[in-house]
Write a structure and sequence with these properties.
Distance between the termini: 30 Å
Number of domains: 4
Largest sheet: none
Mean pLDDT: 75
Shape: elongated
Low-confidence stretches: 90-95, 160-174
Number of helices: 11
Number of strands: 0
Helix content: 55-70%
Radius of gyration: 27 Å
């Protein structure tokens, strides 16, 4: 794109405005044009607006921080952070996500794996606890954990504003801007993972079902896999066709996430 340049009229107008602001009578003239008796009254009005803005931002942040969804996401992130600290004891793996660490061969104990699981439903699918083999693999569970972590980052990022950083000149707060950047980044990464789920099948409708079933089990505390309503989408026929179909669709979705996180 070409560089936009100011016209001579714009440059002249800016110079004139600066000159008026440098002069007391000019400032009063500007204030009166805006409906104030003097520049001092205008500054008092601006200070009151900034204070009201800070109070509103503080109230909104407090409401968001008290949201059950945000608190749950913060709790899960705190647990994952402690687990990832253990993964990061080796310098080689200090700055990678849990899935990448696992596929690179880093040993993860059951205790750490249990903390990384996004919820008890995913954990039971990996390790049923009845002596039977799990429905999903170790890599599937870690992919589910990282997918849920992206969702948590999106929720927490939206409640990360700090009204104390609102600038005195009326501009936005530094950490408000940083929180917005973090949220946009988390949203981009989460949407990319969702796209990997939706495109995990060459049939669009099946891709949407796969994303729904993965979200059902992995996100927002999760739900039991067997409670997911397949409706007309039971793709296998025979004994326990709905149960087998759910497991197949979930495995396909988590497998797509495994491939997505490897390529990331």
């Amino acid at each position: 794109m070409g560089k936009l340049t100011a016209s001579p009229e714009m440059i002249s107008g800016q110079a004139s405005q600066r000159k008026r602001l440098d002069d007391a009578s000019g400032r009063d003239e500007i204030a009166k044009a805006r409906g104030f008796s003097s520049w001092a009254a205008f500054e008092v009005d601006q200070a009151e607006k900034r204070e009201a803005k800070a109070k509103y931002a503080a109230k909104r942040k407090a409401e968001e921080d008290q949201s059950p969804e945000v608190q749950a996401a913060q709790d899960r992130q705190a647990l994952q952070f402690e687990a990832l600290k253990q993964l990061g004891r080796s310098v080689r793996f200090a700055d990678v996500d849990s899935y990448t660490a696992a596929v690179r061969g880093l040993d993860i104990t059951d205790g750490v794996m249990r903390v990384l699981a996004p919820n008890v439903h995913v954990l039971k699918l990996w390790r049923p606890g009845n002596g039977r083999a799990g429905v999903i693999s170790r890599e599937d569970m870690l992919a589910a954990a990282d997918y849920a972590s992206l969702r948590d980052s999106l929720l927490v990022g939206g409640a990360g504003r700090d009204p104390a950083d609102i600038r005195v000149d009326g501009g936005g707060g530094g950490s408000t801007e940083l929180a917005l950047i973090h949220r946009l980044k988390a949203a981009e990464q989460f949407k990319a993972a969702e796209l990997a789920l939706v495109t995990s099948s060459i049939v669009p409708v099946w891709g949407r079902v796969i994303r729904r079933i993965v979200d059902w089990v992995c996100l927002d505390g999760g739900q039991p896999l067997d409670d997911f309503s397949l409706g007309e989408y039971a793709i296998l026929k025979g004994e326990n066709e709905a149960k087998a179909s759910r497991r197949l669709l979930l495995k396909q979705g988590l497998g797509a996430l495994c491939q997505h996180f490897v390529r990331r």
